[in-house]
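To close the chapter, one final illustration. This time we ask the reader to focus less on the individual chains and more on the assembly as a whole: which components sit near each other, and how the overall shape emerges from the parts.
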Amino acid sequence: MSSVWPWTIASVVACAYLVWRRLLAYLRYLQQEGYEAWRFLRWTHVRSLADPALWLSIAAAVLFLRAPVSATVTFGLGAVLFGIAQPDPRRTGKIPLRLTWRATRILAVAAILAAASWALLFRAAPPGATLAPLVASSVLFAGLPLVLIAANALLAPYEHRVQHRYEVEAAARLQAVSPLVIGITGSYGKSSTKAMLAHILQFDAPTLAASGSINTLMGVTRHIREELVSGHKFMIVEMGAFRPGSIRRLCQLTPPRAGLITAVGDMHLERFGSLDNIVKAKSELAQATPPGGYLAVNADSPAALRIAQGATHCRVLLYGQTSTEDLVTRIEQLRFSKEGTTFALRTKERVYSCFTPLLGRPIILNLAGAFTMATALDVDPDLAVAAMRTLKPLTNRLEVVEEGGVTWVRDAYNSNQFGFRAALEVAAALPAGRRFIATPGVIALGREQFEVNRTLAREAAAVCDRTLVVSDTNKSAFQAGHKDAGRDDQLVPVFNRSAAFRWLRENVKNGDLVILENDLPDLYEESSGVFWKASKRAAAERR
Amino acid sequence: MIGESTPGRRRTIGVIFGGRSLEHDVSVVSGLQILHAIDPQQFSPLPVYIDQQGRWWVGDDLWQTSSFKGGGPDRARLTEVILAASYGTSALRPVEGGLARSPRTLAVDAFVPVLHGTFGEDGCVQGLLEMSGCAYVGSGVLASAVGMNKRVTKIVALHAGVPVVPWLSCERTVLEEGNAWLQDLPTRVHDRLGWPVIVKPCSLGSSAGVTTARSPDELVAGVLRVFEYDLEALVEPFITNRLELNVAVAGLDPPVASVTEMPVTTQTSPLSFSEKYKRQGRKSVGSSEGMAGALRVLDPDSLSSELRARAQRYATTVFQAIRGEGISRIDFLIDADDGELYFNEINTLPGSLAFYLWSAAPHYWTITELLARLIERAERVQAVKRGLQRTPPAELRLLT
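The assembled structure is written out below.
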């Protein structure tokens, strides 16, 4: 038996290497979940039980009873191979791991905890039990996510203190620079409205707005500390509501002088329980807007309108298109073309003819919100209208591209029913021989999912000559929707995205139009590539 | 033996590329080309990479194009360095904090900045190199700063007798002066230039932010687009039937013009950023070759030899007028309707250092030979500058 020990030491080193790689992999998701243990645990679920490393150690332990040396060698080699095969989370995936100081701290503590737990498990074994290292390893691999959570919890008091210090610093900086803060919240369209408002305001005065969707206390704190400089006149803060009180906290850090509320709906219903609670959470922005401050509200959204009606202390500015309220800005004469959207904005004073290269009804609604807020803040309306012409369409967000005589309406990043409808509407307005749509439908709607997809399928059938429903996720809902429309023959179920493209390549002709709506593989991406590199084919499909 | 490189220490040549500009990627492509083109017998080339956050790095990974794909080179495998502004020995100092590597100062004999655009081509990095007393290839602070500003270069060129396309300028400060400019500018353009016009940033290279405007609405939008990138917009008449002609000039004694080149492009719009650098067609060699990969005709015989010679003469004139050094590329426009040749712009750090123009007839210089001569010249210029009298004369010594 004594000849096993040298091999054991080598395989322990290999195991340590693999544990290190795995910690990095899990850390990426802990970071993505905002270092929140429960959200991370929901993602982890029983994932660590699917880790091949766990099964390798169990298999090695079983084999060990018959051939100790070969079991130990197999385990060591396997651990090295698995370590190499695992993609580096710092370089792969949609959101790679960023080894910030905080992440490094957690990683270091987790590594110590992992070593300590392994040693404890090893010590717990009866003396002379050569099987102990393998058993300890298998338990460790199964419990690795918990080790990260423990490390995170140990560091929590320290992180809390650091975060508090950062907040104090950010508040002091904000007070010193004292820009006019505009808070934006809503269930949909926050980031897009923020980007458009920033685009318009920058031509009036230096404006700070985070690119992307930084909307948490920690994110905003960091953004202020890193980016806010004397000279900034406007600062636009996107305020996300994760639970009641989160917007109030953000408003304490960055007291808004004006607020903008985009569409309010039942997104994240599971977090809040009811639409009433969502409305309550979003109205924290209205409550924080000072008396006499501007509050621009999307009147087309009934829930947003309820917030406006409760905000009697503010100067409420309603904007919209279909609302019957007395609007400050009303969208009229909406017309879509391949180049962009032509529309008019009717204000109390005048009607402005506008053009923007962006497409889609929700986008124009957000733009009307940005226009309303900008002009309320004394930006010349003509300048705001001119600025709309220079907005740039974003890749895969209702982007129209001509390729080889075929018009592609690319909307892969959209994932909700409103965006789906907007794409259908734009596609219907563009000239085309035949129209096709390839989509997996929309997901994450709980019990509503079937009915929503059924309705979308019915609407798609009215616009498109063929619907390619990708994957089985919403296939039955799409079949039902097409049956409702009496267009069963128009539905083409395909197994996956590449099958859809194969079908399109064979059937699409010059002059046709194709809508690529929602990209399901992308949504499911987070579940692949933790332990193994995603195959080249899968990666290509994602692209 | 005379003519052979002396044995012993090879001089370290720091090739600076990357940078905090829109043309970061183009500079990486150019920089790596130059890095590999420096004669290793004579010199020891050292890649110095400035990332998009403005931090400086050295390391072996910087030799490979593949390191720059994805999120850029792995910083953990590089050493962060600084070039101190304090005058003295020309060296890069590692930033403290590395655990594994012992901080070792890297002496650099001369630098070759291959940075394009803001902070690299506009005199900023040249100013830093001057402050710390380093020898460097290429234009100095004055020529770089003048060359970067298209309006100022036009004035200098005009003064030197080189024809330029008329222009109107619009500074970003108009945004602070009310909305009158929204009407005034189109009126001025209408009266003085006519439609259509080209709207471009005054001090950016690489055609970024350039648009064509056919109406007042498009003009204002074009100017606002420029203001997202730059503080000043230039408006020029759009020459419908236009050809482009480029010439490089090497700052030797005397300056030498290269052959002319005609970039192949769609005739209706100026060479766009993606055409210049990303075009991938049957004949193109692909984006990894930067400017060297674009489509072009060298020494186009469709043009008269007189016109080509005139372009070379004008190019040298402008180069000298701004006090250029190193390699510049001077771009001209030809109005095909009347055959008139106009100076358009000068790039004091052109993509790929326009090396493809030097290996063409009649010079037969490889970029390696040319770089060796330019490095030598840079070292001489710096030695002369170091010899200039810097001790204050008695009448300026007030504190003794």
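The longest strand of chain A covers residues 329-336. Chain A has a mean pLDDT of 89. With these observations in hand, you are ready for the problems at the end of the chapter.
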